[in-house]
Amino acid sequence: MSFTENKAFKQRSPYAIFEDEVCRADTMRSLISDKELNYLKRNQFIGALELHIIRIVTQFKLINAKQLYDLLCLQYKNITKYQLDVSVKKLCNKSFLHRIVMSRKDVCTLRYVYAIGIHAHTVFPEAVFSTDVLCMDIHRLKRTLATNQLVISALKEYGPFNFSSSGIKLLKDKGMTRLFSYDSLLHIDDMSYYALVLRKVPDWEKNFCDSLELIGILTREEVCKIVAVCEDSEQSDTASMHITDLNDYVIVVYDRELHLNGFKSCVEKNK
Description:
Blueprint: H1 7-10, E1 21-25, H2 34-42, H3 48-60, E2 63-64, H4 65-73, H5 81-93, E3 97-104, E4 107-116, H6 131-134, H7 138-158, E5 162-164, E6 167-173, E7 176-182, E8 184-188, E9 191-197, H8 204-221, E10 224-230, H9 233-241, E11 250-254, H10 255-261, H11 263-268
Parallel strand pairs: 9-10, 10-11
Antiparallel strand pairs: 1-3, 2-4, 3-4, 5-8, 6-7, 8-9
Protein backbone atom coordinates (compact mmCIF):
# COMPACT_ATOMS: atom_id res chain seq x y z
CA MET A 1 0.00 0.00 0.00
CA SER A 2 1.65 3.22 -1.14
CA PHE A 3 0.97 6.71 0.15
CA THR A 4 3.23 8.32 -2.46
CA GLU A 5 1.96 9.53 -5.81
CA ASN A 6 3.67 8.85 -9.10
CA LYS A 7 4.91 12.04 -10.80
CA ALA A 8 2.29 11.62 -13.54
CA PHE A 9 -0.48 11.67 -10.95
CA LYS A 10 0.91 14.77 -9.25
CA GLN A 11 0.31 16.78 -12.42
CA ARG A 12 -3.41 16.00 -12.24
CA SER A 13 -5.85 14.99 -9.58
CA PRO A 14 -5.55 11.27 -8.74
CA TYR A 15 -9.36 11.23 -9.00
CA ALA A 16 -9.33 12.40 -12.62
CA ILE A 17 -10.17 10.08 -15.50
CA PHE A 18 -6.97 8.84 -17.13
CA GLU A 19 -6.81 7.21 -20.53
CA ASP A 20 -6.25 3.43 -20.42
CA GLU A 21 -6.76 3.29 -16.65
CA VAL A 22 -8.61 0.20 -15.47
CA CYS A 23 -9.63 -1.36 -12.17
CA ARG A 24 -10.09 -4.95 -11.12
CA ALA A 25 -10.84 -6.82 -7.93
CA ASP A 26 -7.68 -8.31 -6.44
CA THR A 27 -7.60 -12.09 -6.23
CA MET A 28 -9.98 -12.91 -3.39
CA ARG A 29 -8.55 -14.93 -0.52
CA SER A 30 -10.11 -18.30 0.24
CA LEU A 31 -12.98 -18.23 2.69
CA ILE A 32 -11.97 -19.14 6.21
CA SER A 33 -13.91 -21.59 8.32
CA ASP A 34 -16.17 -20.75 11.26
CA LYS A 35 -13.60 -22.48 13.45
CA GLU A 36 -10.84 -20.15 12.27
CA LEU A 37 -13.11 -17.09 12.60
CA ASN A 38 -13.84 -18.02 16.22
CA TYR A 39 -10.13 -18.53 16.83
CA LEU A 40 -9.33 -15.07 15.41
CA LYS A 41 -12.00 -13.47 17.61
CA ARG A 42 -10.74 -15.21 20.77
CA ASN A 43 -7.20 -14.04 20.05
CA GLN A 44 -8.21 -10.41 19.38
CA PHE A 45 -7.25 -10.47 15.71
CA ILE A 46 -9.69 -7.57 15.32
CA GLY A 47 -8.56 -4.84 17.70
CA ALA A 48 -9.94 -1.33 18.14
CA LEU A 49 -8.01 0.00 15.14
CA GLU A 50 -9.12 -2.81 12.82
CA LEU A 51 -12.74 -2.43 13.90
CA HIS A 52 -12.59 1.31 13.26
CA ILE A 53 -11.18 0.68 9.78
CA ILE A 54 -14.06 -1.68 9.03
CA ARG A 55 -16.56 0.95 10.27
CA ILE A 56 -15.06 3.58 7.97
CA VAL A 57 -15.07 1.31 4.91
CA THR A 58 -18.68 0.34 5.69
CA GLN A 59 -19.71 3.99 5.75
CA PHE A 60 -17.81 5.07 2.63
CA LYS A 61 -18.29 1.83 0.61
CA LEU A 62 -14.97 2.40 -1.20
CA ILE A 63 -11.91 4.23 0.09
CA ASN A 64 -8.19 4.51 -0.60
CA ALA A 65 -5.28 4.38 1.84
CA LYS A 66 -4.73 8.15 2.03
CA GLN A 67 -8.39 8.78 2.81
CA LEU A 68 -8.42 6.03 5.41
CA TYR A 69 -5.38 7.56 7.07
CA ASP A 70 -6.89 11.07 7.10
CA LEU A 71 -10.07 9.79 8.75
CA LEU A 72 -8.24 7.68 11.32
CA CYS A 73 -6.10 10.68 12.27
CA LEU A 74 -9.26 12.48 13.38
CA GLN A 75 -9.60 9.90 16.18
CA TYR A 76 -6.11 8.42 16.61
CA LYS A 77 -3.77 11.41 16.67
CA ASN A 78 -0.61 9.31 16.93
CA ILE A 79 -1.40 6.63 14.36
CA THR A 80 1.37 5.95 11.83
CA LYS A 81 1.07 4.96 8.20
CA TYR A 82 2.95 1.79 9.05
CA GLN A 83 0.30 0.81 11.63
CA LEU A 84 -2.44 1.36 9.07
CA ASP A 85 -0.51 -0.62 6.46
CA VAL A 86 -0.15 -3.60 8.81
CA SER A 87 -3.83 -3.53 9.86
CA VAL A 88 -5.18 -3.23 6.31
CA LYS A 89 -2.98 -6.05 5.02
CA LYS A 90 -4.10 -8.46 7.70
CA LEU A 91 -7.76 -7.53 7.17
CA CYS A 92 -7.37 -8.21 3.44
CA ASN A 93 -5.55 -11.50 4.05
CA LYS A 94 -8.53 -12.85 5.99
CA SER A 95 -11.21 -11.32 3.72
CA PHE A 96 -12.47 -8.79 6.25
CA LEU A 97 -11.61 -6.27 3.52
CA HIS A 98 -11.28 -6.72 -0.23
CA ARG A 99 -8.84 -4.83 -2.38
CA ILE A 100 -9.45 -3.26 -5.79
CA VAL A 101 -6.43 -2.52 -7.99
CA MET A 102 -6.22 0.50 -10.29
CA SER A 103 -3.56 0.44 -12.99
CA ARG A 104 -2.47 2.25 -16.14
CA LYS A 105 -0.41 0.96 -19.04
CA ASP A 106 2.01 3.89 -18.94
CA VAL A 107 2.49 3.96 -15.13
CA CYS A 108 4.18 1.22 -13.12
CA THR A 109 2.66 2.18 -9.77
CA LEU A 110 -0.47 0.29 -8.71
CA ARG A 111 -3.07 2.12 -6.66
CA TYR A 112 -5.43 0.37 -4.25
CA VAL A 113 -8.97 0.94 -3.10
CA TYR A 114 -10.63 -1.00 -0.29
CA ALA A 115 -14.15 -2.41 0.06
CA ILE A 116 -15.92 -4.49 2.69
CA GLY A 117 -14.90 -8.14 2.69
CA ILE A 118 -17.11 -11.16 3.02
CA HIS A 119 -16.21 -11.82 6.69
CA ALA A 120 -16.54 -8.24 7.98
CA HIS A 121 -20.13 -8.73 9.14
CA THR A 122 -18.96 -11.26 11.75
CA VAL A 123 -17.34 -8.46 13.76
CA PHE A 124 -19.45 -5.51 12.57
CA PRO A 125 -23.04 -6.49 11.60
CA GLU A 126 -23.61 -3.29 9.56
CA ALA A 127 -20.80 -4.29 7.16
CA VAL A 128 -22.37 -5.75 4.03
CA PHE A 129 -20.26 -7.45 1.37
CA SER A 130 -21.28 -6.43 -2.15
CA THR A 131 -20.10 -7.98 -5.40
CA ASP A 132 -21.43 -4.87 -7.19
CA VAL A 133 -18.76 -2.74 -5.50
CA LEU A 134 -16.01 -5.11 -6.65
CA CYS A 135 -17.32 -4.91 -10.23
CA MET A 136 -17.53 -1.11 -10.28
CA ASP A 137 -16.16 0.54 -13.42
CA ILE A 138 -13.27 3.01 -13.21
CA HIS A 139 -15.43 6.09 -13.87
CA ARG A 140 -17.80 5.35 -11.00
CA LEU A 141 -14.89 4.43 -8.75
CA LYS A 142 -13.16 7.76 -9.40
CA ARG A 143 -16.39 9.64 -8.69
CA THR A 144 -16.70 7.80 -5.38
CA LEU A 145 -13.13 8.68 -4.37
CA ALA A 146 -13.62 12.33 -5.34
CA THR A 147 -16.81 12.38 -3.26
CA ASN A 148 -14.87 10.94 -0.32
CA GLN A 149 -12.37 13.77 -0.60
CA LEU A 150 -15.17 16.34 -0.34
CA VAL A 151 -16.68 14.70 2.76
CA ILE A 152 -13.30 14.23 4.46
CA SER A 153 -12.34 17.85 3.80
CA ALA A 154 -15.57 18.98 5.52
CA LEU A 155 -15.08 16.57 8.44
CA LYS A 156 -11.61 17.99 9.09
CA GLU A 157 -12.99 21.53 9.36
CA TYR A 158 -16.43 21.06 10.92
CA GLY A 159 -16.04 17.93 12.99
CA PRO A 160 -18.71 15.18 12.98
CA PHE A 161 -21.90 15.79 11.01
CA ASN A 162 -24.51 13.65 9.29
CA PHE A 163 -23.89 12.63 5.71
CA SER A 164 -25.04 9.93 3.33
CA SER A 165 -23.65 8.39 0.19
CA SER A 166 -25.12 8.59 -3.31
CA GLY A 167 -28.87 8.78 -3.64
CA ILE A 168 -31.85 10.01 -5.63
CA LYS A 169 -34.13 12.90 -4.70
CA LEU A 170 -37.71 12.82 -5.96
CA LEU A 171 -38.84 16.19 -7.32
CA LYS A 172 -42.33 17.34 -8.27
CA ASP A 173 -42.50 19.38 -11.46
CA LYS A 174 -45.74 20.30 -13.21
CA GLY A 175 -47.53 17.23 -11.90
CA MET A 176 -44.65 14.92 -12.84
CA THR A 177 -42.06 13.17 -10.66
CA ARG A 178 -38.47 13.77 -11.71
CA LEU A 179 -35.30 12.21 -10.33
CA PHE A 180 -32.23 14.15 -9.23
CA SER A 181 -29.16 11.96 -8.65
CA TYR A 182 -26.42 13.12 -6.30
CA ASP A 183 -23.14 11.66 -5.04
CA SER A 184 -23.44 12.61 -1.37
CA LEU A 185 -25.63 14.67 0.95
CA LEU A 186 -23.95 16.59 3.78
CA HIS A 187 -25.89 18.21 6.62
CA ILE A 188 -23.62 20.88 8.14
CA ASP A 189 -25.01 23.32 10.70
CA ASP A 190 -28.35 24.41 9.23
CA MET A 191 -27.48 23.79 5.58
CA SER A 192 -27.78 20.76 3.30
CA TYR A 193 -25.09 20.33 0.64
CA TYR A 194 -25.73 18.03 -2.31
CA ALA A 195 -22.46 16.86 -3.87
CA LEU A 196 -22.43 16.45 -7.63
CA VAL A 197 -19.12 15.03 -8.87
CA LEU A 198 -18.22 15.76 -12.49
CA ARG A 199 -15.57 13.75 -14.31
CA LYS A 200 -14.38 14.24 -17.88
CA VAL A 201 -16.42 11.52 -19.50
CA PRO A 202 -18.34 11.76 -22.79
CA ASP A 203 -21.41 14.02 -22.55
CA TRP A 204 -20.50 15.27 -19.06
CA GLU A 205 -21.35 18.86 -20.07
CA LYS A 206 -24.79 17.93 -21.41
CA ASN A 207 -25.53 15.83 -18.33
CA PHE A 208 -24.50 18.71 -16.08
CA CYS A 209 -26.85 21.08 -17.90
CA ASP A 210 -29.67 18.54 -17.45
CA SER A 211 -28.85 18.42 -13.73
CA LEU A 212 -29.01 22.22 -13.52
CA GLU A 213 -32.62 22.14 -14.66
CA LEU A 214 -33.41 19.73 -11.82
CA ILE A 215 -31.38 21.82 -9.37
CA GLY A 216 -33.58 24.78 -10.21
CA ILE A 217 -36.60 22.73 -9.08
CA LEU A 218 -34.77 21.39 -6.00
CA THR A 219 -33.75 24.82 -4.71
CA ARG A 220 -37.38 25.97 -4.90
CA GLU A 221 -38.40 23.03 -2.69
CA GLU A 222 -35.79 23.26 0.05
CA VAL A 223 -32.99 25.40 1.42
CA CYS A 224 -29.79 23.82 0.14
CA LYS A 225 -26.57 24.27 -1.80
CA ILE A 226 -25.11 22.13 -4.55
CA VAL A 227 -21.36 21.54 -4.66
CA ALA A 228 -20.20 20.54 -8.14
CA VAL A 229 -16.74 18.97 -7.92
CA CYS A 230 -14.73 19.05 -11.17
CA GLU A 231 -11.49 17.33 -12.12
CA ASP A 232 -9.53 20.51 -12.78
CA SER A 233 -9.78 24.28 -13.24
CA GLU A 234 -10.53 23.94 -16.96
CA GLN A 235 -13.57 21.77 -16.36
CA SER A 236 -14.56 24.05 -13.46
CA ASP A 237 -14.52 27.09 -15.75
CA THR A 238 -16.65 25.29 -18.32
CA ALA A 239 -19.17 24.16 -15.71
CA SER A 240 -19.35 27.66 -14.21
CA MET A 241 -20.40 29.13 -17.57
CA HIS A 242 -23.61 27.11 -17.49
CA ILE A 243 -24.80 28.10 -14.01
CA THR A 244 -26.13 31.59 -14.91
CA ASP A 245 -29.13 32.30 -12.64
CA LEU A 246 -28.22 29.51 -10.18
CA ASN A 247 -25.08 31.26 -8.93
CA ASP A 248 -26.55 31.62 -5.43
CA TYR A 249 -27.11 27.88 -5.13
CA VAL A 250 -24.37 26.07 -7.08
CA ILE A 251 -20.76 26.12 -5.90
CA VAL A 252 -18.22 24.89 -8.46
CA VAL A 253 -14.86 23.63 -7.19
CA TYR A 254 -12.21 21.26 -8.48
CA ASP A 255 -10.19 18.50 -6.82
CA ARG A 256 -6.90 20.33 -6.27
CA GLU A 257 -8.66 23.49 -5.09
CA LEU A 258 -10.58 21.45 -2.54
CA HIS A 259 -7.41 19.69 -1.41
CA LEU A 260 -5.41 22.91 -1.00
CA ASN A 261 -8.07 25.28 0.38
CA GLY A 262 -10.52 23.02 2.18
CA PHE A 263 -14.29 22.67 2.02
CA LYS A 264 -15.13 25.78 4.04
CA SER A 265 -13.00 28.11 1.92
CA CYS A 266 -14.42 26.71 -1.32
CA VAL A 267 -18.00 27.15 -0.08
CA GLU A 268 -17.42 30.67 1.23
CA LYS A 269 -15.91 31.91 -2.03
CA ASN A 270 -19.45 31.97 -3.45
CA LYS A 271 -20.86 34.21 -0.73
